[in-house]
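Invent a record, attention on tokens:
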Amino acid sequence: MKQLDVKDKKLLYEIDLNARLGTSALGKKIGLSQEGVHYRLQRLEKKRIISGYITLINFGKVGYTGYAIYSRFQNVTKEKKQEIIDELTKNTHVYWIAEFGGKFDLAFAIMARNIIEFNDIFTELSTQYSEFLKDLTIAIRAELIQFPRDYLIEQKERRKITPRFGKYIEAEKLEKIDVEILKEITQNPRLSVLEISNKLRNSPLTIKSHLKNLEKEIIQGYSTRIHCQEFGFESYQLFLSTHNLTKDKKSKLISYCQAHPNIIFYIETVGKWNFEIIYEIENQKELQELVIEIRTKFSDILTDVESAVLFNHYVKYNQYPFE
């Protein structure tokens, strides 16, 4: 990996596992001083290897489902493309935006409480951009699992507990202070309890107590927007269509994803395809080998495997985008 030494890779791995770790805790894990960690983080941010930090919210626990829309551009100039992305970024219903190449050009995902609310938002956006976006394809996100970037440190055993989002809608009752904390910490998960208490004008003890409760069910963890392209890797998304799927066969697919050091996302969807898998790998040749491998391992359930290159997975990624 160009530009990265062993300490850089360990730092990226650890801060991706927990973006709330301070420089002292990070230093102990990777064998650096606080100053050394601070310097390296600044350098990684300056090089755009790190573009920010993410609070991972199980949106199903706050009463929402994610609906992804994949599209292709038409009649779009460079300026118009950026205008569309900027407008979607400001939209408080949109929690994820990504730039693709190949099968799709642009994808974005909407948070909605139910299919009626989603349809209203989708209809408004599809009408607004009807001249510029075509072949819109909807994928309802039933469950998402995020995996650590084990390829960074050649980790042999993967963590058994990983962030999960979606699945059953079981809206937790949130107090006003909970909502305020979520809004602050999704903007910057590296804020300390004291910084959050100052912003919200509440006591640190109150903030700490509510944050601890939120971390039981709603907050699944704290991660980092890492751009593998900036250190010589490439990102690809597979779209898997299946048949004869059983709970046991789905469990085997999840286990395969969990065991693979280069898979960072598993997404179960309802729509044109059934699963999405995101890889971070060295080149397209490796992708071809991975497609052959997954076709072979799951030949009894796979009917089709398509791929697209992910240029930027993190144009926007805020799992609590509400005002």
The longest strand covers residues 302-317. The two ends are 39 Å apart (CA to CA). Residues 141 and 269 are 5 Å apart (CA to CA).
